[in-house]
Amino acid sequence: AGGGVEVEAKLRLRDCRELEEVEKRLQELGAVHEEDVAEEDTYYQHPCRDFAETDEALRVRLVDGRAELTYKGPKRIIGGSKARAEYTITLEDPSSARRILEALGFRPAAVVRKRRSYYRLDGVSVSLDRVEGLGCFLEAEYTGEGGQEAARAIEEALEKLGVAERERIYKSYLELLLEKKAPEA
Ligand code: ATP
Ligand code: CA
Ligand code: CA
Protein backbone atom coordinates (compact mmCIF):
# COMPACT_ATOMS: atom_id res chain seq x y z
CA ALA A 1 0.00 0.00 0.00
CA GLY A 2 1.57 3.27 -1.14
CA GLY A 3 2.30 5.78 1.63
CA GLY A 4 0.81 3.52 4.30
CA VAL A 5 -2.71 3.89 2.88
CA GLU A 6 -4.66 0.93 1.56
CA VAL A 7 -7.30 1.67 -1.08
CA GLU A 8 -9.24 -1.38 -2.22
CA ALA A 9 -12.61 -2.57 -3.50
CA LYS A 10 -14.05 -5.95 -2.54
CA LEU A 11 -16.85 -7.70 -4.39
CA ARG A 12 -18.53 -11.06 -4.17
CA LEU A 13 -18.43 -13.20 -7.27
CA ARG A 14 -21.52 -15.16 -8.33
CA ASP A 15 -19.68 -18.40 -7.62
CA CYS A 16 -16.22 -19.84 -8.01
CA ARG A 17 -16.83 -20.54 -11.71
CA GLU A 18 -17.08 -16.82 -12.21
CA LEU A 19 -13.65 -16.52 -10.59
CA GLU A 20 -12.30 -18.71 -13.38
CA GLU A 21 -14.06 -16.55 -16.00
CA VAL A 22 -12.52 -13.40 -14.53
CA GLU A 23 -9.15 -15.12 -14.49
CA LYS A 24 -9.45 -15.84 -18.23
CA ARG A 25 -10.39 -12.22 -18.83
CA LEU A 26 -7.33 -11.05 -16.88
CA GLN A 27 -5.12 -13.20 -19.07
CA GLU A 28 -6.78 -11.85 -22.25
CA LEU A 29 -6.15 -8.30 -21.02
CA GLY A 30 -2.46 -9.08 -20.55
CA ALA A 31 -2.52 -8.84 -16.76
CA VAL A 32 0.63 -10.17 -15.08
CA HIS A 33 0.08 -13.26 -12.94
CA GLU A 34 2.19 -12.58 -9.86
CA GLU A 35 1.59 -15.53 -7.53
CA ASP A 36 -0.82 -18.07 -6.09
CA VAL A 37 -0.64 -18.33 -2.32
CA ALA A 38 -2.40 -19.79 0.69
CA GLU A 39 -2.97 -17.17 3.38
CA GLU A 40 -3.75 -17.92 7.02
CA ASP A 41 -4.71 -14.82 8.97
CA THR A 42 -5.02 -14.63 12.75
CA TYR A 43 -6.81 -11.49 13.95
CA TYR A 44 -6.12 -10.26 17.47
CA GLN A 45 -8.32 -8.47 19.93
CA HIS A 46 -6.89 -5.57 21.90
CA PRO A 47 -6.82 -5.88 25.73
CA CYS A 48 -8.80 -2.67 26.32
CA ARG A 49 -10.07 -1.46 22.96
CA ASP A 50 -12.83 -3.08 20.91
CA PHE A 51 -11.42 -3.29 17.39
CA ALA A 52 -14.85 -4.19 15.96
CA GLU A 53 -16.04 -0.88 17.44
CA THR A 54 -13.03 1.24 16.41
CA ASP A 55 -12.80 -0.44 12.98
CA GLU A 56 -9.11 -1.27 13.45
CA ALA A 57 -7.33 -4.59 12.98
CA LEU A 58 -4.14 -6.32 14.05
CA ARG A 59 -3.21 -9.45 12.17
CA VAL A 60 -0.49 -12.06 11.86
CA ARG A 61 -0.49 -13.51 8.33
CA LEU A 62 1.25 -16.74 7.37
CA VAL A 63 1.73 -16.98 3.64
CA ASP A 64 3.65 -19.92 2.20
CA GLY A 65 6.36 -19.99 4.85
CA ARG A 66 6.58 -16.21 5.24
CA ALA A 67 4.95 -14.19 7.99
CA GLU A 68 3.90 -10.58 8.45
CA LEU A 69 2.28 -8.35 11.03
CA THR A 70 -0.26 -5.77 9.85
CA TYR A 71 -2.12 -2.95 11.54
CA LYS A 72 -5.16 -1.46 9.76
CA GLY A 73 -6.87 1.77 10.79
CA PRO A 74 -10.53 2.81 10.41
CA LYS A 75 -12.07 2.82 6.90
CA ARG A 76 -13.34 5.69 4.83
CA ILE A 77 -15.34 4.99 1.67
CA ILE A 78 -14.22 6.78 -1.49
CA GLY A 79 -15.98 6.09 -4.78
CA GLY A 80 -16.79 2.42 -4.19
CA SER A 81 -13.44 1.69 -2.51
CA LYS A 82 -12.34 1.47 1.11
CA ALA A 83 -9.37 3.58 2.22
CA ARG A 84 -7.52 3.11 5.50
CA ALA A 85 -4.11 3.35 7.09
CA GLU A 86 -2.17 0.09 6.75
CA TYR A 87 1.27 -0.72 8.15
CA THR A 88 2.99 -4.05 7.60
CA ILE A 89 6.27 -5.52 8.77
CA THR A 90 7.84 -8.85 7.91
CA LEU A 91 8.15 -11.26 10.83
CA GLU A 92 11.33 -13.26 11.02
CA ASP A 93 9.97 -15.26 13.95
CA PRO A 94 6.16 -15.37 13.98
CA SER A 95 5.83 -17.60 17.05
CA SER A 96 7.84 -15.12 19.16
CA ALA A 97 5.76 -12.27 17.72
CA ARG A 98 2.61 -14.12 18.84
CA ARG A 99 4.12 -14.58 22.32
CA ILE A 100 4.90 -10.87 22.54
CA LEU A 101 1.35 -9.95 21.52
CA GLU A 102 -0.17 -12.41 23.99
CA ALA A 103 2.14 -11.29 26.81
CA LEU A 104 0.87 -7.75 26.19
CA GLY A 105 -2.74 -8.89 26.50
CA PHE A 106 -3.71 -9.30 22.85
CA ARG A 107 -5.81 -12.43 22.25
CA PRO A 108 -6.29 -14.32 18.99
CA ALA A 109 -9.93 -13.67 18.01
CA ALA A 110 -10.38 -15.50 14.74
CA VAL A 111 -8.58 -17.21 11.88
CA VAL A 112 -9.40 -16.64 8.21
CA ARG A 113 -7.97 -18.93 5.54
CA LYS A 114 -8.03 -18.45 1.81
CA ARG A 115 -6.29 -19.23 -1.45
CA ARG A 116 -5.47 -16.11 -3.39
CA SER A 117 -4.23 -15.52 -6.94
CA TYR A 118 -2.55 -12.17 -7.42
CA TYR A 119 -2.63 -10.41 -10.81
CA ARG A 120 -1.41 -6.96 -11.81
CA LEU A 121 -3.50 -4.93 -14.26
CA ASP A 122 -2.07 -1.46 -14.92
CA GLY A 123 -1.44 0.07 -11.47
CA VAL A 124 -3.95 -2.19 -9.78
CA SER A 125 -3.41 -5.44 -7.92
CA VAL A 126 -6.32 -7.81 -8.55
CA SER A 127 -6.79 -10.70 -6.11
CA LEU A 128 -8.99 -13.67 -6.83
CA ASP A 129 -9.90 -15.12 -3.44
CA ARG A 130 -11.30 -18.50 -2.48
CA VAL A 131 -12.19 -17.98 1.17
CA GLU A 132 -12.72 -21.05 3.34
CA GLY A 133 -16.36 -21.23 4.45
CA LEU A 134 -17.37 -18.08 2.50
CA GLY A 135 -16.95 -18.50 -1.24
CA CYS A 136 -15.22 -16.58 -4.00
CA PHE A 137 -14.43 -12.87 -4.08
CA LEU A 138 -12.45 -10.35 -6.04
CA GLU A 139 -10.41 -7.53 -4.59
CA ALA A 140 -8.80 -4.68 -6.51
CA GLU A 141 -6.17 -2.62 -4.71
CA TYR A 142 -4.38 0.47 -5.91
CA THR A 143 -0.65 0.22 -5.40
CA GLY A 144 0.51 3.71 -6.38
CA GLU A 145 0.44 7.02 -4.51
CA GLY A 146 -2.53 9.34 -4.17
CA GLY A 147 -6.15 9.02 -3.10
CA GLN A 148 -8.59 10.41 -5.70
CA GLU A 149 -6.69 8.81 -8.53
CA ALA A 150 -6.69 5.48 -6.67
CA ALA A 151 -10.46 4.99 -6.60
CA ARG A 152 -10.63 5.90 -10.30
CA ALA A 153 -7.89 3.47 -11.31
CA ILE A 154 -9.68 0.71 -9.39
CA GLU A 155 -13.00 1.46 -11.15
CA GLU A 156 -11.25 1.38 -14.54
CA ALA A 157 -9.78 -2.04 -13.78
CA LEU A 158 -13.17 -3.36 -12.61
CA GLU A 159 -14.80 -2.04 -15.78
CA LYS A 160 -12.26 -3.81 -17.98
CA LEU A 161 -13.02 -7.01 -16.09
CA GLY A 162 -16.77 -6.54 -16.52
CA VAL A 163 -17.54 -6.55 -12.78
CA ALA A 164 -17.83 -2.80 -12.05
CA GLU A 165 -21.60 -3.03 -11.58
CA ARG A 166 -21.29 -5.58 -8.80
CA GLU A 167 -22.43 -4.74 -5.32
CA ARG A 168 -19.48 -3.58 -3.22
CA ILE A 169 -18.70 -5.26 0.07
CA TYR A 170 -17.44 -2.97 2.79
CA LYS A 171 -17.29 -5.69 5.40
CA SER A 172 -14.19 -7.75 6.08
CA TYR A 173 -13.89 -11.50 5.53
CA LEU A 174 -13.84 -11.83 9.29
CA GLU A 175 -17.13 -9.95 9.70
CA LEU A 176 -18.71 -12.02 6.92
CA LEU A 177 -17.57 -15.24 8.62
CA LEU A 178 -18.83 -14.14 12.03
CA GLU A 179 -22.21 -13.21 10.49
CA LYS A 180 -22.46 -16.59 8.86
CA LYS A 181 -21.73 -18.40 12.14
CA ALA A 182 -24.25 -16.32 14.14
CA PRO A 183 -26.97 -15.21 11.71
CA GLU A 184 -29.15 -12.39 13.01
CA ALA A 185 -32.74 -13.64 13.25
P1 ATP B 1 -5.65 -7.77 2.80
O1 ATP B 1 -6.43 -6.88 1.88
O2 ATP B 1 -4.79 -6.99 3.74
O3 ATP B 1 -4.91 -8.85 2.10
P2 ATP B 1 -7.91 -9.46 3.43
O4 ATP B 1 -8.45 -9.13 2.07
O5 ATP B 1 -7.52 -10.86 3.70
O6 ATP B 1 -6.71 -8.47 3.79
P3 ATP B 1 -10.00 -7.88 4.60
O7 ATP B 1 -11.35 -8.44 4.81
O8 ATP B 1 -9.84 -6.96 3.45
O9 ATP B 1 -9.00 -9.11 4.54
O10 ATP B 1 -9.45 -7.08 5.88
C1 ATP B 1 -9.33 -7.62 7.21
C2 ATP B 1 -10.44 -7.06 8.06
O11 ATP B 1 -10.71 -7.69 9.32
C3 ATP B 1 -10.28 -5.60 8.36
O12 ATP B 1 -11.28 -4.89 7.66
C4 ATP B 1 -10.52 -5.48 9.89
O13 ATP B 1 -11.11 -4.27 10.19
C5 ATP B 1 -11.33 -6.70 10.16
N1 ATP B 1 -11.34 -7.13 11.57
C6 ATP B 1 -10.29 -7.41 12.34
N2 ATP B 1 -10.64 -7.77 13.60
C7 ATP B 1 -12.00 -7.73 13.64
C8 ATP B 1 -12.99 -8.04 14.65
N3 ATP B 1 -12.63 -8.48 15.87
N4 ATP B 1 -14.29 -7.92 14.31
C9 ATP B 1 -14.65 -7.53 13.08
N5 ATP B 1 -13.75 -7.23 12.07
C10 ATP B 1 -12.45 -7.32 12.34
CA1 CA C 1 -8.72 -6.88 1.51
CA1 CA D 1 -5.58 -5.16 0.67
Task: Explain what this protein looks like in three dimensions.
The chain has 185 residues and is α+β, with helices and mostly antiparallel strands. The protein has a single domain (2-181), classed as Hypothetical Protein Pfu-838710-001 (Beta Barrel), CATH 2.40.320.10. It has helices at 16-28, 51-54, 94-103, 148-160, 173-181; strands at 5-12, 32-45, 57-63, 66-72, 76-78, 81-90, 107-121, 124-131, 135-142. It has an 8-stranded antiparallel barrel with strand order 1-6-4-3-2-7-8-9, surrounded by 4 helices. Strand 8 and strand 9 form a beta hairpin. The longest helix is centred in the N-terminal third of the chain and has 13 residues, at 16-28. The protein is globular. The termini are far apart. The structure holds adenosine-5'-triphosphate and calcium ion (CA) (2 copies). Residues 8, 41, 43, 45, 51-52, 55, 57, 72, 109, 139, 172-175 line the site of adenosine-5'-triphosphate.
Bound molecules: adenosine-5'-triphosphate, calcium ion
Name of the CATH homologous superfamily? Hypothetical Protein Pfu-838710-001
Quickly give the CATH architecture.
Beta Barrel
Low-confidence stretches: none
CA radius of gyration: 17 Å
- Give the terminus-to-terminus CA distance: 38 Å
User: How many individual helices?
Assistant: 5
Total beta-strand segments:
9
Instruction: Give average pLDDT, whole number.
Output: 94
Largest sheet: 8 strands, antiparallel, barrel
| Topology pattern, helix = H, strand = E | EHEHEEEEHEEEHH
